[in-house]
Amino acid sequence: MERLKGYTTLPFHSTLRVLHLQVESASHKKMLAKLKAELSDKEKQELKTVLENMQAAIEVCKQHTSDLGVERLKKEPIIMERLN
Fold first, then answer.
1. Percent of the residues in the chain that have a pLDDT greater than 70, as a whole number
2. Which of 7, 11, 33, 39 could form a Cys-Cys staple with 43, CB 3.0–4.6 A?
């Protein structure tokens, strides 16, 4: 990250990409299948709802980044104040 007079730039599109990869990774899918085998029907339904919500959030993030355009983000990074 680049530091500018107490500010930090955050590559928003990169953060979303990492999140997307984590959710869709094969190891997570294998762990999910194992967990599902051990869960009750109620727990399975709750997990299904959570996963559907996560997928919907990923789609919203994809739409947001495609609307903004990655090239624009590279030229104009999102700047936030440092928390420290």
1. 46
2. 39
> How many C-beta atoms lie closer than 10 Å to residue 48's C-beta?
11
Domain count, the chain: 1
Please give the Cα distance from 37 to 2 (Å, whole number). Answer: 45
Burial 15-44 (b: 16+ CB within 10 A, else e): ebeeeeeeeeeeeeeeeeeeeeeeeeeeee
pLDDT tens digits for 1-20? 444 444 445 566 666 776 66
- Spell out the residues 6+ positions from residue 67 whose beta carbon is closer than 8 angstroms to its own: none
pTM: 0.39
More confident residue, 12 or 49: 49
Q: Do 13 and 70 form a contact (C-beta atoms < 8 A)?
A: yes
Domain that holds residue 38: 3-81
